């Protein structure tokens, strides 16, 4: 029975880890094909932070059900009921901890200065890009969420030909 519980806990952790991300490399379906506001900025400071995991209750419920089923198989009818209740409580606590751990993310706090002198702080999961003080970046805001990405190289506009 412990192999079953281990398998279920592992499956729950894997499923929960795919639930949410703040990664700048992942775009939510609702943000695709939407116009976003883009602002030029310069990186002032970057520091590593951790985005705490969620506790939606899904992990607790899954763990509680698993613990109750496993506990109810212990001993006779009365012992099984007591073990089932204890298993449900222990499973809920463990399931909640698994959910919180599986949804934690290593992230960056990026402090930038906009061209007008205003400063902003954005926290996003570590993505493919790295940032250093002085880097030119763009802030891309869609649906109330902002991500930081490297500024693309801009080619100067060609001068119009003169008819002289």
TrEMBL record:
InterPro entries: Gly_zipper_2TM_dom. PROSITE patterns: PROKAR_LIPOPROTEIN. It holds the Pfam family Rick_17kDa_Anti. Residues 58-99 form the Glycine zipper 2TM domain. This is Glycine zipper 2TM domain-containing protein. It comes from Pelomonas cellulosilytica. The lineage of its organism: Bacteria, Pseudomonadati, Pseudomonadota, Betaproteobacteria, Burkholderiales.
């Amino acid at each position: 029975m412990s192999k079953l519980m281990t398998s279920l806990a592992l499956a729950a952790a894997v499923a929960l880890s795919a639930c949410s991300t703040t990664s700048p490399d992942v775009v939510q379906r609702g943000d695709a094909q939407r116009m976003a506001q883009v602002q030029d900025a310069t990186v002032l400071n970057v520091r590593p932070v951790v985005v705490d995991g969620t506790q939606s209750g899904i992990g607790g419920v899954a763990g509680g059900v698993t613990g109750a089923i496993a506990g109810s198989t212990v001993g006779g009818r009365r012992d099984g009921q007591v073990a089932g209740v204890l298993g449900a409580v222990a499973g809920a606590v463990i399931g909640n901890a698994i959910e919180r751990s599986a949804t934690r993310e290593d992230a960056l706090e990026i402090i930038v200065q906009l061209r007008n002198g205003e400063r902003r702080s954005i926290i996003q999961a570590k993505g493919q890009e790295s940032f250093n003080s002085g880097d030119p970046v763009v802030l891309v805001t869609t649906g109330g969420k902002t991500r930081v990405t490297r500024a693309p190289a801009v080619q100067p506009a060609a001068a119009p030909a003169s008819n002289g």
